[in-house]
Design goal:
Oligomer: single chain
Number of helices: 6
Largest sheet: 9 strands, mixed
Shape: globular
CATH architecture: 3-Layer(aba) Sandwich
Strand order of the largest sheet: 5-4-6-7-3-8-9-10-11
CATH topology: Rossmann fold
Radius of gyration: 22 Å
CATH superfamily: P-loop containing nucleotide triphosphate hydrolases
Length: about 280
Amino acid sequence: MSTNGHLRREVSTYHETKPRVSSASFTRLSDLTPEATEWLWHLRIPKGEHTIVDGDPSVNKSSLLMDLAARVSKGREMPDGTGGKKGGVLLLLAEDSLKKTVLQRLDAAGADMRRISVPNRPVLIPRDLSLIEEIACQIQASLIVIDPIMAFLGVDSNGDQKVRGALTPLKSFAEKTGVAVVLVRHLTKRGGVHALYRGTGSIGIIAATRSALLVGRSPDEPNLRVLCQTKSNLGPLGPSLLFEPLSTPEGVLRIEWRGECERRGWGPGSTCYWSMPPGESQP
């Protein structure tokens, strides 16, 4: 008998003797219906998924997220003019004082404070996922901001398997409810690495996200910031945007958006580098 014939007989015998599993233990892809991606912010922040915002310290990542939280709380349009989605916002914040910083910045951004909540005790992921999910459901959250993600991981942030195990249940909850989860992360100082891989912690963090945004200082005007997209698994990369951090007469930081720009994040060096406009070569 040929080798192929012998293998076919072994396979046939295996299937005849192997106990059958219940059809409830698997799903045929033919039984599923494709779903279109829904966006909290078109092309940049998908609903039901993880998005990450990377950047060096002091480039106004947190202020940017307060601006977005304010927009979601009132259903206002997004910074690029695309339609907004009204809903509750759950903030998990570890660095800024709620009473001295966060409240003032949200107020300056025009937020509806009734739609924005924080947990009443420290939480860790995955230990306190049930509490996070309970609060998110109660406030009908459209957005969860975790800033920075490293402060809320209850596992070794450099352990790929542990990080994925911690974030996967949160991803499942987001997918079931349609809430957008935005993680904030600092960049490392190591040079010669693409910006996508310069974030602190395990590669599992960026792998768990469907969209990655990068914030950096504009090389053209130091007082401006560039928000660009370095990863998107669900659509084309969105155009880069400029914004400017300004102070109110009371000294509270707020964000003013300045439109699109041609800069793109690409990576080498200890700070955010940007590619040149079309037609020009990169350094």
